[in-house]
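Q: What structure does this chain adopt?
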Amino acid sequence: QVHLMESGGGSAQTGGSLRLSCVTSGITYRDYCLGWFRQAPGKERESVARTHSTAGLTVYHDSVKGRFSISRDPTNHTLYLQMNGLKPEDSAMYYCATTSDGFGCSSRPGWFQYWGQGTQVTVSS
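A:
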C-alpha cells in the first residue's frame, strides 16, 4: 500500500550540492517517521537523517551534520534531502524509508517497513 520513489541522484564535485527527492504514496493522515539511508558497497546500511514532524524530531548522522538538511513538503507528499558540501565519502546508494509506526523513529534499518528502490550518488574528488 505504501510506495516510495527516490530521485535526484547523480554525480557531483567535491563541495557541490545535490537535492534528493522521495515521493510518497499510500500514507494516511497520520504522521510517520521518514528517513534517508545510504549504503556503499561492502558496508552496512546507515541512517543519514530522519524526521518525525509530530514529535518535532530531526536527527542527522554525525558525518553529515551542518551539511545535509532533511525536509518534508506536505503539499506534494515529498521528502527531501538537501546535500551541500559533498564529500567523496558521501558516495553511496541512497534510500528513503518509512514505517507504519505512528510514534517511533529509529536509526536502525530493520525497524523500517517500506523502502524505495534507491538513487545513486557519486561524488568525485
